[in-house]
Amino acid sequence: MTLGDPFTLENVGITANGVFGVTIPDGVTTDIEYSTDLIDWEVIAPDVSSALEETDADRIAAPSGFYRARQ
């Protein structure tokens, strides 16, 4: 997969028990970022190439948090 190619993330979101999860397609490496304002983004997991769960209690409890994957 090259930079700029579209890819689809699966299982994106917060689960019923408050855990964030994402499945990255085969052959894709991406950074998972987090933001509370959609302006300033923090890389919380660099170079992810497999399934990932959010387990940081502060981020899970945040009133409005956003996640994105960036290649």
Domain module count = 1
Biggest sheet: strands side by side, in what order? 1-2-5
Helicity range: under 10%
Biggest sheet: strands, sense, closure?
A: 3 strands, antiparallel
Total strand segments: 6
Overall shape: globular
**Through-space gap between termini:** 10 Å
Describe it.
This protein has one domain (10-70). The strands form two sheets. Strands 1-2-5 form a three-stranded antiparallel sheet. Strands 4-3-6 form a three-stranded antiparallel sheet, with no helix packed on it. The chain is 7% helix and 42% strand. The model has no long low-confidence stretch (mean pLDDT 76). It has one helix spanning 57-61, and strands at 10-14, 20-23, 30-35, 42-48, 52-54, 66-70. A hairpin with a 6-residue loop joins strand 3 and strand 4. The protein contains one helix and six strands; from the N terminus they run βββββαβ. The chain is mostly beta strands and 71 residues long.
